[in-house]
Amino acid sequence: MKEPIPYSTQTTMRAIVATGYGTPEVLKLTKREIPTPGESDVLIRVVASNVTAADSMMRRGDPAYARLFLGLTKPKAPIPGTGLAGVVEATGSAVARFQIGDEVFGESGTSFGAHAEYVCVPEDGVLLPKPAFLSFDDAAAICDGPLTSFNFLRRMADIQPGQRVLINGASGALGSAAVQLAKAFGATVTGVCSSKNLEFVSDLGADEVIDYTSRDFTQEHNRYDVIYDSVGKSSYRRSKRALAPGGAYLSPVLSIPLLFQMLASKFGNKSAKFDATGLRKADELRGFLTELLDMVRSGKLRSVVERIYPLDRLIEAHALVDSGHKRGTLIVRMDG
Length: 336
Hints:
Elements: E1 12-18, E2 27-33, E3 41-51, H1 53-60, H2 67-70, E4 83-91, E5 103-107, E6 118-122, E7 127-129, H3 136-142, H4 145-156, E8 164-168, H5 173-184, E9 188-193, H6 198-203, E10 208-211, E11 224-229, H7 236-239, E12 243-251, H8 256-265, E13 271-274, H9 282-297, E14 305-310, H10 314-323, E15 329-333
Parallel strand pairs: 8-9, 8-11, 9-10, 11-12, 12-13, 14-15
Antiparallel strand pairs: 1-2, 3-4, 3-6, 3-15, 4-5, 5-7
Helix pairs in contact: 4-5, 4-9
C-alpha cells in the first residue's frame, strides 16, 4: 500500500469523471481540484468506495426519464460514487462531531463524488465513525447491499419471526445482505440465484436455494409473505401468484410497469412496493447503519466483498456489474 500524499501539500486529486451516458468507457480518470469544505462540511480522504448497480444505471442514464434529474446529456454531478469509507482530512469551522484523523464511513448522497481521492460530506449527512472492528472495505460495503436491504426488509416489510421470505438475486450485493438480514429477523428464507452460487447462498443462511436456470419460483406451489426482488428481474405481475394473502412484492428497481402495478395492488390483498433508499432522510439512514453495525458486531451480518479494484480500473468494475454476475459488493481502493 503506497502512502498518500499529505493533503496540506497538494491541491489536486485523482477522480473518475463520467463524460456522458453509455458504456463503462465513458468513465475517465482525470485530475480535479480537491474540494474545499464549507463551514458545516467534512473533507474526507477516501480509502475505499463501493461500486453498485445504481452507479451503473446512473452511468447509462437508465431509465431515460431519470436524466431529467441527473442531467439531460451527461451527469450534472460528473464524479460518480456514493458509498465510502475514509479519514477526515479537514473540517469546516462549524463542524463539532468530527475531527481531523477520524476514520469514518457513510454516503455522499445525491452529490455523489465518492470515486475520487477526496470528497466533502455534510457533518449532518450520512456519516458515522468507523468502528475498529470494521475494515475500510467492509465499511464501504455496508453502505451498499446491507443499507438498502435493511430499509426494505425491516422498515418496509417489517419481517416477523416465522414469515416466509423469498430473495430473488440472492448472491448479489443486496441479495446476499438480504438473506442474512431476513434470517436474523427470524424468517424462513428462500434464495434464488444461479447454479454456481447455490452453495454460497446456502452458506449465508438460506433455508432453501432455487436455481433460476432450472426452476421458476413463480410457477411453484410455495407461497411467501415477502418477495424481495433485489435485482428487479421479475415483476409483481409474475410474482403475485407466489405471494400469500397479505403478502408484499418489494423491488429497489423502479420501472413504469412497476408504478402501474403499485397503483393496481392498492385494490387487492397483495401489494407491490418500491423505495429509493438513498433519498431517505440522513438521520434515518444513520439509524439504519447504526443497527447494521450492531448486527455485524453480534455476528448476525458480514460484508460480502467479491473483488477490490484500484481507481484506474473502475471501468472493469462497472463491466462486471453490467454482466449481472457479480457476487456481493465490488470495492474501489484509492491507494491501489
